[in-house]
TrEMBL record:
<dbReference type="InterPro" id="IPR017978">
    <property type="entry name" value="GPCR_3_C"/>
</dbReference>
<dbReference type="GO" id="GO:0016020">
    <property type="term" value="C:membrane"/>
</dbReference>
<dbReference type="GO" id="GO:0004930">
    <property type="term" value="F:G protein-coupled receptor activity"/>
</dbReference>
<keyword id="KW-1133">Transmembrane helix</keyword>
<dbReference type="Pfam" id="PF01094">
    <property type="entry name" value="ANF_receptor"/>
</dbReference>
<keyword id="KW-0325">Glycoprotein</keyword>
<feature type="transmembrane region" description="Helical">
    <location>
        <begin position="433"/>
        <end position="456"/>
    </location>
</feature>
<keyword id="KW-0472">Membrane</keyword>
<dbReference type="InterPro" id="IPR050726">
    <property type="entry name" value="mGluR"/>
</dbReference>
<dbReference type="Pfam" id="PF00003">
    <property type="entry name" value="7tm_3"/>
</dbReference>
<feature type="transmembrane region" description="Helical">
    <location>
        <begin position="468"/>
        <end position="490"/>
    </location>
</feature>
<feature type="domain" description="G-protein coupled receptors family 3 profile">
    <location>
        <begin position="431"/>
        <end position="629"/>
    </location>
</feature>
<protein>
    <recommendedName>
        <fullName>G-protein coupled receptors family 3 profile domain-containing protein</fullName>
    </recommendedName>
</protein>
<feature type="transmembrane region" description="Helical">
    <location>
        <begin position="584"/>
        <end position="608"/>
    </location>
</feature>
<dbReference type="InterPro" id="IPR028082">
    <property type="entry name" value="Peripla_BP_I"/>
</dbReference>
<dbReference type="InterPro" id="IPR001828">
    <property type="entry name" value="ANF_lig-bd_rcpt"/>
</dbReference>
<keyword id="KW-0812">Transmembrane</keyword>
Length: 629
């Protein structure tokens, strides 16, 4: 759709312009999805045309572009049958063919990237009041694009400051890409980056485009014990998610969801929203396209579109005056004049509404003096949800301070769940030191045995020792030490969990297999004429102790519950948890300690009595200890 709309006279702007007898027609292009499905969005974009005209009128009343009759050429970039950006491209080309002096739009970040790539080539300035992706801040590609919308960088950093303000150390990140990915991806990246720098853990991160992912989201929120959620969305699918979580019983008073988008959450918006829209409605009561959305909080895009109209008019005025040009050259889009176009011309620092003073920085991004949080409160009478504004101080780089603190349902701030900490042994923990010492002793004994058996391989006692039993024990020690090395600290990948679990089982099985032939040979020695009879129960007790310890370790390891999918505890450092609960993590540390102590005690006990039994061989102590071990 392409049409021309002439500005309507009112008491603020056009009355001043009407004092000129010969007006020069200057035309702006307005590129928006006017026919988009959904009454809320359609209302937002349709009334944006009035907001742009209202901003132009106020700029002219302030003395900018006097003598110009500013009109709008409208182009609809929405297609119900084509999800590509072709309508956006055709729309901006159609506007440029109508010789528009500037373009205001597009409606979404992906569309703005496509249209701004074209307007930048012909040096036509473009302003968007609803595109937030960080990609548009790159002036090398979009040198004349600016916006009055909250940027994804600002939203991400603002969310991080809210997390720190409430002392939330764990947050789940959800992104709704059903209507585009540029904004949600860049905003989520900014949040995860700034949150990680502030030592805030990201418990999970998931993107969804429709309701088929709702059950998975609920399962992951429950599994990761997430209570604080950061939600970046660009469509009503996110509202359906909130209803789903509420119906499933997850969204309770002890949970908090921070929503961020160009419509649902204004993290950096100025505080003059109500004033601007209320003044407009008082002057033009018949211009509200959908009266049911006349609530200022429901039409948050009005003041942003107002800002685009105001800043665009002031910028074009500076272009003309700084280059000693004329309105006719501006209207004709004179090549010489437009070659001098600079982004700094559109750096509006004041407006007729003192509450809405804003600055466009060198990246073309909105720099607001404060932020506004909106909390969603359920009305006790109508049971409907209402937005409540909370003015917040804290421009970029400053601490956040609430002027009107948010009132939570239970009267207190929800607390994030305790951070899951794997109780695996480390060199700085008591259990880690014990495991390290016992593992070191085991390695020392093993090396001692290998050395003695190698140097005294012709000794009758060594030759009488079972090679199979000895090799099985050496292999068991190797598996056990490898298991401890994997068990030390926090695992970084899921394969480590599976590897150490099977290594521990293999080690226990090998010791068990080596103990039986060893016990049999000792039993034969006890009943031989050389060995004498120091007591059959002594060897039975020692053997039974070893077997019991190994059977207990093998049984406990096999019975411990392991999650089908390993839990991702922290996406920023890739920590994973191997067991279903911290209690089992503690038990595993206990198992390792008990097994080592049990084997050492039983081995020393068995070594002592083996020495007494076979003393007539007159072997060295080293051989006896090695053989017994």
């Amino acid at each position: 759709m392409s049409s021309t709309v002439t500005i309507v006279a009112n008491s603020t702007g056009p009355a001043t312009a009407a004092s000129f007898t010969n007006l020069t027609t200057v035309q702006y292009g307005l590129l928006l999805p006017f026919s988009i499905i959904g009454t809320w969005w359609r209302s937002e974009f349709v009334i944006a045309a009035d907001a742009v005209l209202y901003g132009i009128a106020h700029a002219q009343a302030a003395g900018y572009l006097l003598g110009a009759n500013v009109t709008l050429a409208l182009a609809d970039e929405y297609s119900a049958t084509d999800s590509s950006l072709r309508r956006t491209v055709f729309g901006v080309l159609d506007l440029l063919q109508q010789n528009v002096s500037a373009v205001i739009g597009s409606g979404f970040s992906d569309a703005s990237k496509a249209s701004a790539a074209i307007t930048s080539v012909v040096h036509v300035p473009q302003c968007s009041f609803s595109s937030s992706t960080a990609d548009l801040s790159f002036k090398g590609q979009f040198p004349l694009f600016f916006r009055t919308a909250d940027t994804s960088q600002m939203l991400g950093r603002s969310m991080t400051r809210v997390l720190l303000y409430y002392k939330w150390q764990r947050v789940a990140v959800l992104t709704d890409s059903s209507a585009g990915t540029s904004f949600v991806q860049s905003a989520a990246l900014e949040l995860t980056t700034s949150a990680s720098r502030a030592n805030v853990a990201i418990t999970m991160q998931l993107d969804f485009a429709d309701e088929s992912m709702f059950a998975t989201i609920l399962a992951m929120l429950t599994e990761t014990q997430s209570r604080i959620v950061a939600l970046f969305n660009v469509s009503p699918v996110a509202a359906n998610l909130l209803q789903f979580l509420y119906g499933a019983g997850w969204l309770a008073p002890d949970k908090a969801i921070m929503g961020a988008s160009t419509y649902f959450f204004m993290a950096s918006g100025p505080t003059g929203i109500d004033t601007i829209l209320a003044t407009y409605l008082a002057e033009h009561p018949d211009r509200v396209p959908l009266p049911q959305y006349a609530n200022p909080s429901a039409l948050g895009g009005f003041y942003r579109a107002f800002g685009c109209g105001y800043a665009m008019t002031t910028g074009l005025h500076r272009l003309v005056t700084d280059n000693n040009s004329t309105l006719d050259a501006l209207a004709a889009r004179d090549a010489t004049l437009y070659s001098a176009m600079k982004l700094r011309y559109f750096n509006a620092t004041s407006s007729p509404f003192s509450e809405y003073d804003f600055t466009i920085d060198t990246n073309g991004d909105l720099s607001a003096p404060n932020m506004t949080l909106q909390s969603l409160v359920r009305n006790a009478t109508s049971r409907a949800y209402e937005f409540v504004d909370h003015v917040v101080l804290g421009p970029d780089g400053c601490a956040l301070k609430l002027i009107n603190p948010v009132v939570f349902p239970n009267g207190y701030v929800p607390q994030d769940a305790p951070t899951p900490v794997l109780l695996n042994p480390t060199i700085h923990s008591a259990s880690g030191v014990i495991v390290a010492v016992l593992t070191g002793l085991t390695l020392l004994f093993t090396l001692f045995t290998v050395v003695v058996f190698t140097l005294r391989r012709r000794d009758p006692a060594v030759r009488a020792t079972s090679r199979l039993s000895t090799n099985l024990l050496h292999l068991a020690v190797l598996c056990g030490v490898s298991c401890v090395c994997l068990y030390y600290g926090v695992p970084r990948a899921a394969w480590q969990c599976a590897a150490r679990r099977w290594l521990l089982r293999l080690s226990s099985g090998l010791v068990f297999a080596a103990t039986l032939p060893k016990a049999f040979r000792v039993y034969r020695l006890l009943h031989s004429p050389v060995g004498g009879q120091p007591g059959e129960w002594t060897m039975v007790k020692a053997t039974a102790t070893i077997l019991a310890v190994e059977l207990a370790a093998f049984g406990a390891e096999s019975a411990s519950p392991v999650l089908p999918e390993f839990v991702q505890l922290d996406l920023t450092t890739a920590h994973v948890g191997c067991y279903a609960s911290d209690q089992w993590a503690v038990l595993k540390v206990g198992i390792v300690i008990v097994v080592n102590i049990g084997l050492i005690v039983a081995g020393l006990y068995l070594t002592y009595h083996t020495r007494a039994i076979a003393s007539r061989y007159n072997d060295s102590s080293a051989v006896f200890f090695s053989r017994a071990f």
